Amino acid sequence: MTLQWTAVASFLYAEIGVLVILCLPFISAQRWQSIFKWSIWNRLSQFWNKGFLTMIIILIVLFLDALREVRKYSNSDQSKDSKLHPNMFDHMHMKLFRAQRNLYISGFSLFLWLVMRRVVTLINQLATAMGTSAALQTQAESANKAAKKYMEDNEMLKQALTDSKAEGGKTQDPEENKPLKSLTEELKSSKDALKKSNSDLDAMKKQVEGLTKEYDRLLQEHQELQNQLDSGDKKDN
């Protein structure tokens, strides 16, 4: 294996290792997001897009070169030369095998490079959605407690008003109804805020479920690709 294909193979194994680490179940998305926010990544972020596109171009060029080699040795006719040179047939098949191996290495490297960026993006989105969902849930719980408190106060005021009417039979002063009205308005606003928080929470839950499904799908695809790569290495051996 030449130096360039040795580098591509090492890059492929590094990608597989990084994806395996990113897919570890005991490391949460919030933990990965905190790691991604380290200062070293902020310094490298300005070069990230250029490096990402450069690596894609390099891998595409190597993939096309390997594809050209495969087509070259697949379409060659060695029937006459094989009679004159008995070792020529084995030599051409060895070159075809190397070209196919390089094609698989460059192709999987290119694919996993795109998958790795997508996985990092989904982890960040999942962590953000989980944080927002937790904040909305806390807000909804506080609004629910406030609504229950206002409802209890409202019931107590209604009971006191009923008792006062039953005992004295006096006309109620409008000034005495102001606390009741204010509590009723606050209760209504709290109910509206609670409904809004619940609707926002449901929307965030749906978004988190979608991101989780996409994350699981990419994890399954990565496992299948790794199994295919392992089976290919066993066949080569």
From TrEMBL:
GO terms for biological process: apoptotic process; endoplasmic reticulum to Golgi vesicle-mediated transport; intracellular protein transport; protein localization to endoplasmic reticulum exit site. Residues 1-134 form the BAP29/BAP31 transmembrane domain. Signal peptide: none annotated. It is found in: Endoplasmic reticulum membrane. Residues 181-236 form the Bap31/Bap29 cytoplasmic coiled-coil domain. Residues 163-208 are annotated as: Disordered. It holds the Pfam family Bap31_Bap29_C. The keyword Transmembrane helix applies. It is a multi-pass membrane protein. One of its GO terms (cellular component) is endoplasmic reticulum membrane. InterPro entries: BAP29/BAP31, BAP29/BAP31_N, Bap31/Bap29_C. It comes from the Eukaryota. The keyword Cell membrane does not apply. May play a role in anterograde transport of membrane proteins from the endoplasmic reticulum to the Golgi. Belongs to the BCAP29/BCAP31 family. This is Endoplasmic reticulum transmembrane protein. It comes from Onychostoma macrolepis.
